[in-house]
TrEMBL record:
Disordered, as annotated region: 57-77, 107-155
Main location per the UniProt record: Golgi
High-level lineage: Eukaryota, Metazoa, Chordata, Craniata, Vertebrata
Family indicated by similarity: Belongs to the FAM20 family.
PROSITE patterns: PROKAR_LIPOPROTEIN (PS51257)
Species of origin: Microtus ochrogaster (Prairie vole)
Domain FAM20 C-terminal: 349-565
Gene (UniProt): Fam20c
A Pfam family recorded for this sequence: Fam20C
Localization, UniProt: Golgi apparatus
The name this protein goes by in its record: Extracellular serine/threonine protein kinase FAM20C
Length: 580
């Protein structure tokens, strides 16, 4: 009798399980059957996600119907794209994992009510404004035509004609260039045969070296950028490949997308048709949104427009230590979902209640439906930073910033409690010789002007040893507050009282009315495709902070004397130019 009851119970459990499976399948198939019936009969049916699906492209509905596809199934995925290993943007992964006490961000404020990008003011809205997504582009922006660099009205052209921007680097030997074009770089043009703009072997006018590579002039702009890196600069002042590379970042066809590992926030690695690569940071805040005063510096969002503005500020200061960055509007369906081979990224796409295409990817903290990135309906703005050469070709050394913050809610770093901290730093290699301490001062000025408190590490190219420049990577937490000047960023300058003469003179020049920093930045940023890049109050904050830096240097000179504070590097440059 007991055995019969046990068997009947097992049969009952099996029947319940089968009924549940059948019900699940039926619920899953009903919307499809409803849509098919609507198409065949002409009835409206359920069209709740129809606008977004139409905007997303023909493959969207098909893709959404297979969320349970196994990890090993490749049906319907884009053709496999073979990636070259010529580039890499990442610094030491550990540098992104230092914030162990990150706070969770509350939802950001609603953006200002404007017409969406591409829609004329006064025209009917794309959708009900009650469903306006958060953290989005505030709307259409007036496009100012890019200034003519050669025109008499260009402030940038006049600035770059100034003698302070005409100094030459010392003569370059083989040890002073990152790559020897004929031996270190092996770029075969045949690999880019799918690009119709690339000169083919045997084509009229195509020039090739005896080894089979294309002549340098025929290299893509990202490769010209890599070849131009030397001991003294990431790129030269008048390298035409840099402006061409900025154009490529904003227009080249995207052929592959993958998530970048590490970090607290989502970043995407995008590969272009010419085999260039860039790091994509999506828009998360509107231009006018400030970091709330109660937020810790390590809890802040990374801003895509800060990356763009940092590149232009670095070039105006004549440091030239930030890789080229450009803004771009991305079609999330055609240029991310349809070309990615990253299934973890692909599975996070969804249609929001406002019929916008959204995704959130995978990262340590801010990758969830609550922090999803949503388009209008599938267009999203972001920054694209050109990759540096891959670590297998050009190794980089990661250094802990001596003035690194504690990344803790209560603890303070040593430099915050020890006023003589700089004396200890100057006795420690590589700060005890060479110009590394002066490079730190340049980076300090750069970060203070942006308001960037998140400089925990920096990098240098290993080939050049300690006698080379600092690469200014990862500037996304700059330009977060225009109403507050974080004076603690200037601690290295206050404690060490050292600065290059060339840097000091350029800062004085940029404080003059005819070379006003805010106006120069506004003109430079007008050339970007997502202009205006900075809110006007951020531009005005640059002028205010510049005066604070100059006053800090004057205080040091008054205390220690001009010769002790200002290092005359211009005399060294003059001697090098004379030797040429």
């Amino acid at each position: 009798m007991k055995m019969i009851l046990v068997r009947r119970f097992r049969v009952l459990i099996l029947v319940v399980f089968l009924l549940a499976c059948a019900l699940h399948i039926a619920v899953d198939l009903l919307p499809k059957l409803d849509r098919r019936a609507a198409r065949s009969t002409g009835e409206p049916g359920c069209s709740c996600a129809q606008p977004a699906a139409e905007a997303a492209g023909p493959g969207w509905a098909q893709a959404r119907s297979r969320p349970g596809e196994s990890a090993g199934g490749d049906a319907g995925w884009p053709n496999k794209h073979t990636l070259r290993i010529l580039q890499d943007f990442s610094s030491d992964p550990a540098s992104n994992l230092t914030s162990h006490s990150l706070e969770k961000l509350p939802p950001a404020a609603e953006p200002v009510d404007h017409a969406p990008r591409g829609q004329e003011p006064g025209s009917p809205p794309l959708r009900d404004r009650a469903h306006r997504p958060l953290l989005r582009d505030p709307g259409a922006r007036p496009r100012v035509p890019p200034p003519d660099p050669s025109g008499d009205g260009s402030l940038l052209a006049k600035l770059f004609e100034h003698p302070l921007y005409q100094g030459a680097v010392p003569p370059l030997s083989e040890d002073d260039v990152l790559f020897n074009v004929n031996s270190d770089i092996r770029f075969n043009p045949k690999a880019a045969a799918e690009n119709p703009d690339w000169p083919q072997e045997g084509a009229e006018g195509a020039e090739f070296l005896p080894t089979g590579e294309a002549a340098v002039d025929l290299y893509p702009n990202w490769l010209k950028f890599h070849i131009g890196i030397n001991r003294y600069e990431l790129y030269s002042r008048h390298n035409p490949a840099i402006d061409a590379l900025l154009q490529d970042l904003g227009s080249q066809k995207i052929t592959s997308v993958a998530m970048k590992s590490g970090g607290t926030q989502l970043k995407l690695i995008m590969t272009f048709q010419n085999y260039g690569q860039a790091l994509f940071k999506p828009m998360k805040q509107t231009r006018e949104q400030e970091t709330p005063p109660d937020f810790f510096y390590f809890s802040d969002y990374e801003r895509h427009n800060a990356e763009i503005a940092a590149f232009h500020l670095d070039r105006i200061l004549d440091f030239r230590r930030v890789p080229p960055v450009a803004g771009r509007m991305i079609n999330m369906t055609k240029e991310i979902r349809d070309v990615t081979r990253d299934k973890k990224l692909w599975r996070t796409f969804f249609v929001s209640p406002a019929n916008n295409i959204c995704f959130y990817g995978e990262c340590s903290y801010y990758c969830s439906t609550e922090h999803a990135l949503c388009g209008r309906p599938d267009q999203i703005e972001g920054s694209l930073a050109a990759f540096l050469p891959d670590l297998s070709l050009a190794k980089r050394k990661t250094w802990r910033n001596p003035w690194r913050r504690s990344y803790h809610k209560r603890k303070k770093a040593e430099w915050e409690v020890d006023p003589d901290y700089c004396e200890e730093v100057k006795q420690t290699p590589p700060y005890d010789s060479g110009h590394r301490i002066l490079d730190i001062m340049d980076m300090t000025v750069f970060d203070f002007l942006m308001g960037n408190m998140d400089r925990h590490h920096y990098e240098t190219f290993e080939k050049f040893g300690n006698e080379t420049f600092i690469i200014h990577l990862d500037n996304g937490r700059g330009f977060g507050k225009y109403s507050h000047d974080e004076l603690s960023i200037l601690a290295p300058l206050h404690q060490c009282c050292r600065i290059r003469r060339s840097t000091y003179l350029r800062l004085q020049l940029l404080a003059k009315e005819e070379h006003k920093l805010s106006l120069l930045m506004a003109e430079s940023l007008q050339r970007d495709k997502v202009a205006p890049v900075l809110y006007q109050l951020h531009l005005e904050a640059l002028d205010r902070r510049l005066r604070i830096v100059l006053q800090a240097v004057r205080d040091c000179v008054e205390k220690d004397g001009l010769s002790s504070v200002v290092e005359d590097d211009l005399a060294t440059e003059h001697r090098a130019a004379t030797e040429r």
